[in-house]
Amino acid sequence: MKLRPHLLRALAPAALALLTACGSTPLPPWPSDRAAARTAPAVVNMGSAAASAPAATSPAPAVIVEAVPPPGAASAAAPAEAAAGAGAAPYGPEVAARFPDPSTVYQTPGLASGRDQFSSNSEISGWLRDLAAASGGRSRIGLLGLGASQSGTPLEALVLTRAASTDPAALLASGKPTVLLVGQQHGDEPAPAEALLVLARELARGRLEPLLDRINVVLVPRANPDGAAAGKRVTAGGIDMNRDHLLLRTPEARALARLQRDYQPAVTVDAHEYTVVGRFLEKFGAIQKFDALLQYATTANLSEFMPRASEEWFRRPLVAALNREGLSNEWYYTTSTDPNDLRISMGGTQPDTGRNVFGLRNSVSLLLETRGVGIGRLHIQRRVHTQVVALTSVLQSASQRADDLGKVRSYMDREAAGNACRGEMVTSAGPTPQRRALVMLDPATGADRSIDVDWNSALELRPLKTRGRPCGYWLAAAATQAVERLQQLGVQVMRVAEPGAVLGESYRETARTSGERSDVRGAIADAAPIVQVEVALARGVLDTPMGSYYVPLSQPLANLVVAALEPDTQNSFFANRVVDALQSQARVVGEPTMRLEPLPAGSL
Questions:
Q1: Full residue range of the structural domain in which residue 589 is found
Q2: What is the Cα gyration radius of the chain?
Q3: Rounded-to-integer distance, Cα 332 and Cα 519, Å
Q4: Residue of 24, 90, 104, 121 with fewest CB within 10 Å of its CB?
Q5: Whether residue 471 sits in one domain with residue 322
């Protein structure tokens, strides 16, 4: 790429006219609540517990699945499960008494009475195949092969719909929103997978089946089968796949990216479990209390409708459903692995987790975590019950808001595309430091203990670095790996069909260090160190050779493109060597006049 400043003066007036011509999408009216009109916008109290959210906007009570044990099974599995986990219990009976088993008994292969292992990968596959094979009536149930894990284990999803078939085109043509439920991205967090097996059965032929009149559902019970088989958080290659949704280094993350690209869910739930004792007991002398921790997408450049829809339409009804079942809940939070760091942080603000990347796809994106890491099978029926109650609430909310979801998704897509060439964007953001009281449990008595902590709130982001929003990005012909990753994410990429020039900004490196990706927990399990650079922008006319690429921001996934291609962030393609040189990419700040042709997906 050549930068030709001497042509800048000649092209600037035309470029300015094009920039001025770029329009914005008018803000539509917020859909009113069916019960009562709102008199004020949703304002999240950063210091309040999730359990304090008002229940006035909650939907009908959640469907609680009554699971019937198979013939010959014990009438209750909880005692056997408690015994199986008793040897590994990290606390005494006073704490355990705070988490009694639910009245409902759930049955999956991994929850069978006397069982000491959770459902195996083959058992989960068999469960899904049996449901798909029994498809009938008004519903279509299809088993999707998403590829294979690093060790060759099949990655599978179940699609449930009233559409004519289970392929993406049929679901999109149905006009109904699709809800994607993802479980066990971390292999040592088993309750979500067991809960999604229960929900799959109830959606296929149980009490939740009527919801398919209004929504489509796609379930991925176990996104990380290798980690589950090994009882480890990471994939077989040692990568945290829930920090890989932008870089797509793992086959597991690529499978979820293709699923998102093809089925375009309006709502996505990422279901996890969290550490109960461990570093919390070490740092604070207390034990984690809450049955469920909740958060939605919190990263830079999200549509303003994203947190509003997440809060009003989903989190508040979810909290009400948990409260009705006597299940305690809070905003999601964690703490670093450094024993001297006493800060408590909500989920991170980086565009790397499923929660944030799914949000940048304009999908309402929710994180659900139950207390489970480090306690084996202890309280497993209660953990699965919490997941079932919460996920059922999300499905019900999506069904009740089906029409509104379609309108808001359309607006967010048009808004992202319409912002090209205009205004500013945030390339790096951080949480807001606060102080608040956090309730934990006394390890000896099991009583509530309120602890004042430094709290990093992700609900109010602080812009750390901003830039003018370009019209798009130029990529060199050699940047094929970056193009492939963008296409896997669903981003439209154009090929330059004949040589040309465009008004643009190249990146000039001003400082460089090496380092590692990190989040609020500490260093991220990853494959390689990163390149950390500081850059300055140099404006001029850029040569665009035939065979190079143009990535327009006039598309719905524009903000995902920004996260990948602004080089001076820890998650960028350049920092992680997907783009090999700063000279291989540039910002295009004038509408391109060279001839472009669409690049078919998978053509490289």
A1: 3-27+465-598
A2: 24
A3: 14
A4: 24
A5: no
- Sign (positive or negative) of CA dihedral 52, 370, 295, 414: negative
Give the long-range contacts of residues 498-501, CB within 8 A, separation 24 or more: 498/546, 498/594, 498/595, 499/543, 499/544, 499/545, 499/546, 499/594, 500/543, 500/544, 500/592, 500/593, 500/594, 500/595, 501/4, 501/7, 501/11, 501/541, 501/542, 501/543, 501/544, 501/594
* Contact between residue 200 and residue 129 where contact means Cβ atoms under 8 Å apart: no
Inter-helix orientation angle 402-418/380-400, to 10°:
80
| Domain count across the chain | 2
Residue 450 lies in a domain: no
Position 10 scores a pLDDT of 35
What is the per-residue pLDDT across 57-97, written as a single tens digit (0 to 9) for each? Answer: 333 334 445 443 333 333 333 333 333 344 468 999 999 99
Question: Exposed, middle or buried by CB within 10 Å (0-12, 13-18, 19+), for 209?
Answer: middle
Domain of 180: which CATH number?
Answer: 3.40.630.10
Residues 155, 273 share a domain: yes
Q: Are residues 504 and 580 in the same domain?
A: yes
Q: Which amino acid is at 71?
A: P
Q: Do 7 and 106 belong together in one domain?
A: no
In whole angstroms, what is the distance from residue 163 CA to residue 221 CA? 22
| Burial of 291: CB neighbours in 10 Å, binned 0-12, 13-18, 19+ | buried
The separation between CA 289 and the C-alpha centre of its own chain, rounded to angstroms, equals 24
Alpha-carbon gap, residue 112 to 135, rounded angstroms: 25
- Token pair of 591, please? 């509408």
Looking at residue 604, what is its pLDDT? Answer: 75
Residue 467 parent element (H or E): strand 448-468
Name the token pair of 69: 């044990």
- How many residues make up the chain in this entry? 604
Residue 569 CA to residue 61 CA, distance in Å, equals 44
Q: Residue for token digits 């290659």?
A: 237
Q: Cβ of 164: how many Cβ atoms within 10 Å? A: 12
pLDDT score at 88: 60
Distance between CA 47 and CA 53 in Å, rounded? 12
> Tokens representing 53?
């959210």
Closest CA to 270 of 333, 179, 197: 179
Q: How many CA within 13 A on the CB side of residue 358? A: 30
C-alpha–C-alpha distance, residues 435 and 597, integer Å: 53
Asked if pLDDT for residue 18 goes beyond 80, the answer is no
On whether residue 286 sits in a domain, the answer given is yes
Tell me whether residue 459 is in a domain.
no
pTM of the entire predicted model:
0.89
240 falls within a domain: yes
pLDDT grade, residue 442 (50/70/90)? very high
498 C-beta neighbours (distance < 10 Å), count:
12
